[in-house]
Amino acid sequence: DAGVTQTPRHEVAEKGQTIILKCEPVSGHNDLFWYRQTKIQGLELLSYFRSKSLMEDGGAFKDRFKAEMLNSSFSTLKIQPTEPKDSAVYLCASRNWGYQDTQYFGPGTRLLVL
Amino acid sequence: GDKVKQSPSALSLQEGTNSALRCNFSIAATTVQWFLQNPRGSLMNLFYLVPGTKENGRLKSAFDSKESYSTLHIRDAQLEDSGTYFCAAESQGGRALIFGTGTTVSVSP
């Protein structure tokens, strides 16, 4: 079984650009999460979907961050416009809700905004 | 605030020794998960716990929901145990995990 995949693995953007990060959850999983990880703030939730419906949208990230799940096997996270403080690792995770199972994380996208 | 507090923040171990990591919760945690993030950044699942204990090889974890804490014990530490260990809690009615700040473990020969 393929795990969670994320693309790209690395992204460099200029301030003010729009970038789109992609995630494919584990096949059959119905929960999908986007997190951001920085040294200072640690792991912070950005968005949480269950069966493609948005369940939770991290309050601090609403204005420039938009996550979407157009189908059960693909999600995107758009950052528009990017700012240098957005430099971080963006992690996607999925799980099979209802089966008392852990979240499975993708390898992450390392974003650098100049 | 620190809903999930991990201690210690860093730990240096010699190969072959034992140690314990701890998480204290200020939320009513219903489940706890432990992860290990390796130097490349990949987060690997170690344990998913409802109240009780689990063991996997040299690792053992316990979750006490009444006392609001969880522990992760490392027995006979090996070099490959190095990395950052995160605990994360889920609360009743909560849907996403709340992560601790991590414990960075360095195992040396």
Rg value of chain A: 13 Å
* Number of E-type strands of chain A: 11
Measured as a percent range, the helix fraction of chain B is under 10%
| SSE pattern of chain B, N- to C-terminal | EEEEEEEEEEE
Strand content of chain B: over 45%
Shape of chain A: globular
Main beta sheet of chain A, described? Answer: 7 strands, mixed
The oligomerization state is: heterodimer
Terminal residue distance of chain A: 37 Å
Number of helices of chain B: 0
Q: Element order, helices and strands of chain A? A: EEEEEEEEEEE
Residue-averaged pLDDT of chain B, rounded? 93
Shape descriptor of chain B: globular
Provide the β-strand percentage band of chain A: over 45%
Overview of the structural elements:
Chain A is an all-beta fold and 114 residues long. Chain A is built from no helices and 11 strands. Chain A has strands at 5-7, 10-13, 19-24, 31-38, 42-50, 53-57, 65-71, 74-79, 88-95, 104-105, 109-113. In chain A, strand 4 and strand 5 form a beta hairpin. The radius of gyration of chain A is 13 Å and the shape is globular. Chain A starts with a strand and ends with a strand. Helix content of chain B is 0%, strand content 61%. In chain B, strands 2, 4, 5, 9, 10 and 11 form a 6-stranded mixed β-sheet that branches. In chain B, strands 1-3-8-7-6 form a 5-stranded antiparallel β-sheet, with no helix packed on it. In chain B, a hairpin with a 2-residue loop joins strand 6 (52-56) and strand 7 (59-64). The chains are: A mainly beta (114), B mainly beta (109). Chains A and B meet through strand 5, strand 9 and strand 10 of A and strand 4 and strand 5 of B.
Short description:
With 114 residues, chain A is mainly beta. Chain A has strands at 5-7, 10-13, 19-24, 31-38, 42-50, 53-57, 65-71, 74-79, 88-95, 104-105, 109-113. Chain A has no helices and eleven strands.
